[in-house]
Give the backbone structure.
Amino acid sequence: MITRICTVFIEIVELEYKINLLKKELIRIAETTSLNNHETICCSQRLDQYVTIYQKLLMKKKLKNTRTINVGISSSNHNSLIVY
């Protein structure tokens, strides 16, 4: 369980790093070419893909944390509490 959490955390950190690099690259490309340039569009699409993966990973992590917290609280009480 700990290993999976660490892996997800590392993936999130790596994605954040890559997203920030792509943002800077996109700005640089757009400034030196144009917003309609093929290279700008490709970089923007690549950035979109990384952002989508990042969002899905965060949602997945959030759902796992919610389930873990819910199960932990349910086992000690008979009331369920979902923490977001």
